[in-house]
Amino acid sequence: MKPFSSVIILLTFYFITSACKKGNLPVPTPELIGTNTSVFISDLEGRLYSFNAQTGDILWEKQVEGTMIEGPAASNGLLYTNNNGREIQAHDMKTGEIVWKTSFARPGLGVYKFASAEGVLCSAGEDFIVGLDARTGQKKWEMKPSVVLKDTPNSKAYILRAYDGLIYGTTYTSIFCIEPAYGQVQWQTYVSPQFGLTFCFKNSSLYTFVTEVDQSRTTETAISYNERLIQIDAKTGKAKWDKQVSSNNSSSSLVSSYVVGATSNTIVISSHQNYAMYSRGLSIKDGKQRWKMEFARSNSPVAIHNDFLYWSSLNGSLYQINGDDGSYQAFYNTNGRGYPYQPVYANGTLFQISTDRHLYAIEESTGKALWTVPLKGEVDRNANPIVLDSNQSLFPSDR
Q1: How far apart are CA 174 and CA 187, in angstroms?
Q2: Banded pLDDT at 5 (limits 50, 70, 90)
Q3: Measured between alpha carbons, how far is 305 from 30 in angstroms, rounded to an integer?
Q4: Burial state string for 198-236 with b = 16 or more CB within 10 A and e = fewer than 16
Q5: Whose CA is closest to 328, among 30, 26, 25?
Q6: I want to staple 155 with a disulfide (CB 3.0 to 4.6 A). Which of 42, 145, 283, 298 is the partner?
């Protein structure tokens, strides 16, 4: 072999292997607790799809009344859609037929404001949270956050999540917990952030990340801020610990940070500032930083399995990230570009929507596509697939 050719080969190998942070990522072991049977998704033109999760074959397709905002949620054998922000429709998972629909005079419904627990579907709109019988749509209770939840500057709910039989939500400055049967507030904890709160659950605890402006140090040209990670008991709302992650930070613009998930040992935070994005892994025990990754290609939610994170990016790639040390690699490349969608993990398979208007099923153990199917319309950027398996388990499970 000629010396020049050898140099070219070596340089090519270097650039390929240097594209990812060094560190050999072990192959995750799938936990096959069931067989995936169906995967559901909707598009912005009002179509609701059901595909065979093993083959990608279409099981049914329905045109939904009105314009769907975001994507479907699911529980109790039903798919719930938000139509025009004023109506909830429940569809039979097997056929797509409408089982019930409930309208509201006030707007603002959203799928990120859907959560189901103990047979009650909770949803939130402009200054109201309502609990419906998940099977019939009959209203069980309704409350006004501005009255029940004392908060400033307002008390509307931004996010609802279900965990261990309870409903959790956020206002602008607090996190609260609701008992779903009667809508009684169990607790409300103030954490006073500068942005809307995000949180995740792990081992009966709730973790939230707070960015606070230090007004005493802020000037006309530089914002001073501190960052904290807080562990809260999910049953009582009492803080177990409140750790300062960084202090006396200074920049021309405030960083926005979000809790995207938790592995066994790490709380993962995604941050962006002046269009630059990066991620940090913080210790689940004491909040200390374990790793930082300059990941300037994504701001989407993640899928987590066996301490691996799966994160889609602006360039169409799905990345696999080791939650322990932050090492990563490009796991699968779609043909899409632009806004990245949330992948969903279920029984050894990752389901990924792409801006190329396709749904991908990717085998976790090999990183190869099992199948891909086209969608007829563009999918809302806040939508993600819903997967049903043979045990009637749903993925993701917090809706």
Answers
A1: 10
A2: very low
A3: 8
A4: bbbbbeebbbbbbbbeeeeeeeeeebbbbbbbbbbebee
A5: 25
A6: 145
Round to whole Å and give the CA distance between 162 and 197.
16
Of 10-19, 81-90, 370-379, minimum mean pLDDT range:
10-19
Per-residue H/E/C for 182-213: CCEEEEEEECCCCCCCCEEEECCEEEEEEEEE
Residue in the block written with tokens 């329905």? 62
* Rounded Cα–Cα distance for residues 237 and 249 (Å): 29
Determine contact, residues 350/367, Cβ cutoff 8 Å: no
Joined together, the tokens standing for residue 219 give 């000037």
Q: Is residue 109 pLDDT above 70, yes or no?
A: no
Residue 282 backbone phi and psi in degrees, to 5: -110, 140
Which whole-number Å values give the CA distances from 309 to 53, 322, 343, in the listed order?
21, 7, 10
- 295 token code pair: 């990941």
Q: Helices marked H in the chain — which ranges?
A: 3-18, 145-148
Prediction pTM value: 0.86
Which of the 8 DSSP states describes residue 28? P
Determine the Cα–Cα distance for residues 336 and 190; give it in Å rounded to an integer: 40
**How far is Cα 395 from Cα 389, in angstroms, rounded to an integer?**
9
Q: Write the DSSP symbol of residue 300.
A: S
What does the pLDDT read at residue 57?
A: 98
Distances (CA, A) of 324 to 127, 303, 365: 40, 15, 19
Closest CA to 279 of 296, 265, 262, 264: 296
Cα first-last separation, the chain = 59
Q: Exposed (0-12), middle (13-18) or buried (19+): which is 58, by Cβ within 10 Å? A: exposed
Alpha-carbon distance of 300 to 321, in angstroms, equals 14
The residue with tokens 């279900």 is 162
Q: Quote the CA–CA distance of 239 and 233 in Å, as a whole number.
A: 6
CB atoms within 10 A of CB 381: 17
Six token digits for residue 84: 């025009």
